[in-house]
Write a structure and sequence with these properties.
With about 250 residues, the protein is α+β, with helices and mostly antiparallel strands. About 40% of the residues lie in helices and about 25% in strands.
Length: about 250
């Protein structure tokens, strides 16, 4: 009995771009997962970047994540692009074309939104290792309440109230500092995405959508904003990145 050794080939998806850019993208000679060449498929005003793969499901291993990020980042730095989340695989070129046809209006609208724009990320943190203690040192009323609780004379409700006061002051100061930073960055940020804070020390975590030509100017504004803060705060920024935070695609190959 003959054994079928044919390997099924799918198409791993990276980004959507304007069809007008497909020739330039292909000339860039990008390689994707498993060093497979990246090619484009056109349908109307849109094109999609893909590479062949024999995998049916891609695990988020470092080498695969790095290859995916390399392609979507290089493309976004040179052309308007909608990055696709890691792991999307189409069964065939026919499926890809159907995806483009069924979602053409949404994709065109979102491409227009990020036209010639990239994402820059900024975070600000307190340098103090203990934020509760930091606030006690900077706010006499909180320190008084803390000392009363520490004396052992406070009721359960008074102990809870100290926690509430701390959280309210923490939230208020974060909002105050956010507004201060945004007052500087706002001229260059076409859109701003406020992102969830990951640690208590974090004051601000945002993504800004900026024009490709304004990346250097944005960096200068970050330094300008940092000058408004003392050494109790640390600024960190990175990018440019594909506009992940500003692309909302809910696509399926089904």
């Amino acid at each position: 009995m003959a054994i079928d050794t044919t390997v099924a080939t799918g198409l791993y998806v990276y980004s959507f771009v304007h069809s007008r850019d497909f020739e330039a993208v292909e000339k860039a000679g990008l390689t994707g997962l498993n060093d497979a060449p990246v090619t484009t498929i056109q349908e109307g005003s849109l094109a999609i970047l893909v590479s062949e793969t024999s995998e049916r499901k891609i695990r988020p291993q470092r080498k695969f994540l790095a290859a995916h990020q390399h392609v979507v980042t290089e493309v976004a730095r040179q052309w308007s692009a909608l990055p696709v989340a890691f792991g999307l695989i189409a069964d065939s070129e026919q499926h890809v074309r159907r995806l483009l046809q069924n979602n053409a209006s949404v994709l065109e609208t979102q491409l227009a939104r990020v036209e010639n724009r990239l994402e820059m990320a900024l975070s600000v943190e307190w340098t103090a290792s203990n934020i509760f203690q930091y606030f006690m040192e900077h706010h006499a009323d909180l320190a008084t309440s803390r000392d009363y609780v520490a004396s052992g004379n406070a009721s359960r409700e008074e102990q809870i109230e100290l926690g509430r006061q701390f959280e309210q002051r923490l939230t208020a100061e974060r909002e105050q500092y956010l507004n201060r930073v945004l007052s500087v960055l706002d001229p260059l940020c076409k859109e701003i995405d406020l992102q969830p804070l990951r640690r208590e020390q974090e004051v601000i975590r945002i993504a800004c959508l900026v024009n490709r030509d304004d990346v250097d100017a944005f960096e200068k504004l970050v330094y300008k904003a940092a000058e408004m803060f003392n050494d109790e705060f640390a600024f960190s920024y990175n990018g440019p990145w594909p506009p992940y935070s500003f692309v909302k695609l809910a696509l399926s190959m089904e």
